[in-house]
TrEMBL record:
Organism for this UniProt entry: Coptis chinensis
InterPro entries: T_SNARE_dom
Signal peptide: 1-26
This protein's name: t-SNARE coiled-coil homology domain-containing protein
Higher taxonomy: Eukaryota, Viridiplantae, Streptophyta, Embryophyta, Tracheophyta
Keyword Signal: yes
Length: 84
């Protein structure tokens, strides 16, 4: 092995470094892809929960009105019974 020529010894020493960098970047890309996939799952789950919460909020509002109506009717019946 001769260290003369273009690059010489430095070119031989830099190839393993480049290989290590490429491997590290490949692992980072895999990590980024995994994080993006996980974020997509969390976003979809959050969106579904918001839709469910909105539906429950609408149902809950109607339920409160029905409960107040029943309480008002019972109160009215009690007042009529006391008055007569």
């Amino acid at each position: 092995m001769s260290s003369s020529g273009p690059g010489g010894l430095w070119s031989l020493l830099s190839f393993p470094s480049v290989e290590l960098l490429v491997d590290a970047q490949g692992e980072q890309m895999d990590d980024i892809e995994l994080n993006v996939a996980n974020a997509r799952v969390y976003i979809n789950g959050g969106t579904n929960r918001l839709i469910y919460a909105n539906a429950m909020k609408k149902k809950g509002g109607y339920l409160v009105y029905w409960i107040w109506a029943v309480v008002a009717i019972l109160l009215l019946i009690c007042i009529i019974k006391i008055a007569t």
